[in-house]
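Why this split exists: single-chain examples teach little about how molecules sit against one another. For that reason, every record in the complexes split bundles all components of an assembly together and asks for one structure covering all of them. Below is a record exactly as it appears in the raw files.
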Amino acid sequence: MTMTPAAVALHGVSRTFGRGPSAVTAVDDVTLDFPRGGWTAVMGPSGSGKSTLLHCAAGLERVDTGRVLLGSTDLTSAGDAELTTLRRTRIGFVFQSFNLIGALTAEQNVALPLRLAGKRPSRSVVRATLDAVGLADRARHKPRELSGGQQQRVAIARAMVTRPEVLFADEPTGALDSTAARTVLDLLRAMADAGQSIVMVTHDPGAAARADSVVFLRDGRVVDRLAGADARGVADRLAAWER
Amino acid sequence: MLGMSRAGLAERWTLFVGALLSVALGVALVQSSLLLLISAAQQSSDDAAVPMLGIVLGGAVFLAGFVISSTFAFTVDQRRRDLALLRLVGGSRRQVRRLLLGEAVLLGLGGAAIGVPAGLGVMAVQTWLMRRFEFVPPAFTGEWRMWILGVSVGTGVALAVAGVLVAARRAARVRPLEALRESGPAARVMTAGRWVAGLFFFGGALALVIVAPHGGPAGGQAMAMNVAMPAAVAVVAFGPLLVPVLARLVPFGGGVLGSLARANVRDARRRSASVAAPLIVLIALVVGNTGAGESFTASGVDEMARSTHADFVVEGTVPARPGVATVSAETSLDAQVVTGSGEDQETTDVTALVIDPRAYAVVHGTSVDVHGQAVARGPGGEVSTSGSVRVRLPGADLGELPVVASVPEMMSGGASLLLPPGLVPAAALAQAPTRSFVALAPGADASAVRADLARYGPVFTAGDWLRADAEQRNSTNDKVMLVVLGLGGLYALIGVINSIVIGAATRRREFAEARVTGLTRGQVVRSALLEAYAVTGAALLLGTVAASAAFFAVLATTSAVTGSATLKLPWPLFAAVAAVALTVTGVTSLITSLSATRRPPVTLLAARE
């Protein structure tokens, strides 16, 4: 354990959907730190609550009990306006389905968070961010003119343009072929090596093995944690918990 | 934000075509009606022209607001994922609202740009209609005024911005997480607002149905004619609950297409309700109001026929003749009734009849005891049944006269004042038209008497005359109704087309998924068509329910006023409206689903934004 405070910390977080006998507890009393400057993968069988955990950690989903801290900011007591500001400045998102705005070009999509924050992004900043994901020559293309892997890289550029404290990624390679997935994972690895905090949900042991550590979730609870394992090691551990 | 608005409009233009057309039509109608209204007020024209244009102007604003706001509400619902995405990357609620308002301003300006030239065309049509229906003299023309440009642009922007306000508020509540769901738990369709609006308008319609029978002939008719609108709004508000249930009752036939269409209607209740809403309003307005109008006319004719004990009506003065038992000669005068004094003085134009009270009582079956310096309140109402009134005739002021008697008010109206003979100076009577109601003596030869009467003026049987009289009385109302209903119908159809086009534009992926599952393009199109027909069927049924509320009010009012409940249903009109509705929804569904399935499904499923 390092002495630096966690990028994101969950304290006794629970989240239940529905009521009565059909209620499902997606996250069950989870206490967990995501270290600053590190890449943490969250794994678990489908239905284990890993996406809900990510949404709670990012302030997208209300928690029933417990506290979520982003650095020293309490997300659980933040109002809508404060959460909006956090999304603009301190949090970045990448999702399985890219979620780019189809009406805007790659360049405009990347500039969007800055413009929503009321800034006038300089072209050079936007171009540099696109260049960092290897898409400087695709700036004027609309999402539908790009391949899946390219769209995901635009989404990463959009998330990174605000220089967020934490990048949340939900199955970022889930919709990509293995070559495109490797490009995206290489990108994330380079970002983590440069000091970026990343929290990533995945079901792919190969993707999880690229992270610094892996957290295993089952039935909404953290059941295991693994550091520095290879894909084989992650897969074996996952198989053990799925049994 | 304006840049985003512009990009959004350009990308999703199919979603906005309908809204643009509604704004343009609204601008065109408001501009044309306003110019004509001013021209009519300045030039000499029929008294009915100004109020009629006023009604059209109000109707245009109301319908434009209704269609535009429902179109915007639907487009916002269809774009929830986009809006949530904006929230996800840091957009605030205010920015979402500003984005939609920006779009509305652009649509308003665009609508005005189309609406101003279109307004000139609309003005030509409206002028022609008004000349044709004799609201204005043949030489009447509408005059263009430069300042109308400012009004039209303002109207376009105001209509669009007002239309988007509710939708923008709703959109601002979209949660960022909704961007991550493929289709999302479709936002709750029966919102609190819908319940409140539905119950409010249901209560309004119910109150009118209950109060109408107590409103007298004129008030009762007016209230009954206003039942269909709130009833339709109430039914529309509950549409998401009612439409899917009713649409499933429509026989789909067996087979996979039928069950797919049935599942789609159930699943997409918001879309089904959006398509049904304007149709419900159309049916309720057209069928409900036309039916109510025709029923009141029929009821008036029946009532007159029951109370009139005459065999012939002669347009002229008939003296005592062989074979004739009674003649009630009635001379009609344009009179003014003055009530109050000083600042509060009010003048009402009414019709006065100079009658022979004894003969009038025999022929119309109601005793009226008026003689000397006094008047009686006639079947047309409008005058108090007691106290006194000041009566002015053209060229003669009769002064203050007591109201000493009254006859019951009639459904079809009539003269408001009955004057005894001798009250009116002969000079005032000289030019006035006289009509004689003739009752035959027992055993008289009707055809011989008729031939004899013909020398005093045109002769009608009482039945023929009553029908012609009632129809003539109602014709001005009917013409106004026709113009207003035509306008309403046009708007409703635009609303239906909007909903189907918007619905189909967002269904490309769903259609593509159905095709890769093994359906042919033809099957997808047929299934969408079945679905459109089921929703149209449900809308026809619900529109009839709303129209029935007006019919209840008609039955209660005619029963209370004439003692006999009367209802005349406009079946040919209903059939025509149903045929138009089915054709429009069918053709629109066909075109939009064909266009949405034009590209091979795999290109749609592979390219995810």
